[in-house]
Amino acid sequence: MISNNSLANHLKKDRLIIIGGLFFITLLSWLYIIxxxxxMVYMDMNALFFAMPMTPEWTYIDFILLFLMWLVMMIAMMTxxxxxxxxxxxxxxxxxKQQDRPFINTAYLIAGxxxxxxxxxxxxxxxxxxxxxxxxxxxxxxxxxxxxxSIILIATGIFQFTPLKKTCLTHCGSPLNFVLQHWKESKxxxxxxxxxxxxxxxxxxxxxxxxxxxxxxxNLLWVAIIALFxxxxxxxxxxxxxxxxxxxxxxxxxxxxxxx
Length: 260
Prior knowledge:
Layout: H1 4-41, H2 45-48, H3 60-78, H4 83-98, H5 106-133, H6 146-159, H7 163-172, H8 175-182, H9 186-210, H10 212-215, H11 220-235, H12 241-259
């Protein structure tokens, strides 16, 4: 059994390590996205294929590279919003070790979470391929049909008012409650916890990510706006007007895009 002072020191050390690791992961992910964006801006054809194959016929390498682009982008966008969840897990994990319970590496929790977003990235890559095959995606990775773009915007706005959105946001916005209610022992348990939280997070945010097909998949401004909104929406989940306002704004934007 360790003392309360020793526990506090361990918790402080754990937090510093985790915050530093999450910051490093986020930084590397954003640097990679910025690098790809710069290749698009300056049309460096030797590197542009990492973001968008230039021919309709994709090879399996093209698909893998696009999948990696989506996955890294999801890591860049979602890591800040799950920092509190990971810190809560680490705190409870350390306290359980004080009770002579097995200590679980936080990496298993993170891996489980991003397994879910890897599955989403696979679906998004497939959708990107499909849209390019039917000529609905331009070289800037933006949907060319105003009608389809408007439908996505309006549908995303409506989704903000659905029970599914509210339920998922409740779980995502209460990390301590989630950790306490869904705690599972062992490495496999931590992996499952990460997957469960990842599914709630996906249920909350997947329509927002689909917006990237409207704004431009590599539009850094919109990538940053969506990432910031996801973070604010989770941190301030008790403020019901935030998803409400976002829903109204998206619906109006979709209507405006349709009629202009």
